[in-house]
């Protein structure tokens, strides 16, 4: 049975105290600060890893912290590198292929309760 999301994470989040979740396929994530209306998640990709095309009801804005990614959003593709960003409106198809190992910083509004269903890591 899924657990209900805590209302919010701690005010201060130290990355070295938050576990990384192995999602398989060369992708892992770390859920950082969140409240009901916002969530920040760090996602590591190995070269060649694929974030399959999907859609969700959340707004998403993503910063490429490092690496290089071919990003697909709503029928359009672009190669992005460190410092670049992209925005995904709710319900749009999107995905990414990692061209050079790297990290994405995802923000979601509202928070992704589905990411916390197995328990509250923060």
Describe what this molecule looks like in 3D.
- This protein is mainly β.
- The protein contains one helix and eight strands, in the order ββββββββα.
- Strands 1, 2, 3, 4, 5, 6, 7 and 8 form an eight-stranded antiparallel beta sheet that branches.
- A hairpin with a 2-residue loop joins β1 (21-24) and β2.
- The protein is globular.
- The mean pLDDT is 92.
In short:
This protein has 122 residues and is mostly beta strands. Helices cover 3% and strands 55% of the residues.
Quick tags:
single chain; 122 residues; mainly beta; eight-stranded antiparallel β-sheet; 8 strands; globular
The number of distinct helices, counting runs of at least 4 residues, comes to 1
Helix-strand topology string: EEEEEEEEH
- Write down how many β-strands occur, each being a DSSP E stretch of 2 or more residues: 8
Structural class: mainly beta
Mean pLDDT: 92
Strand % is over 45%
Low-confidence segments, given as residue ranges, are: none
- What gross morphology would you assign? globular
Q: Rg from C-alpha positions?
A: 14 Å
- Binned, the helix content reads under 10%
Give the termini distance in whole angstroms: 19 Å
Largest sheet: 8 strands, antiparallel
What layout of secondary structure does this protein have?
Elements (H helix, E strand, L loop, with lengths): L20 E4 L2 E9 L2 E8 L4 E5 L4 E15 L2 E6 L3 E4 L5 E16 L3 H4 L6
Antiparallel strand pairs: 1-2, 2-3, 3-8, 4-8, 5-6, 5-7, 5-8
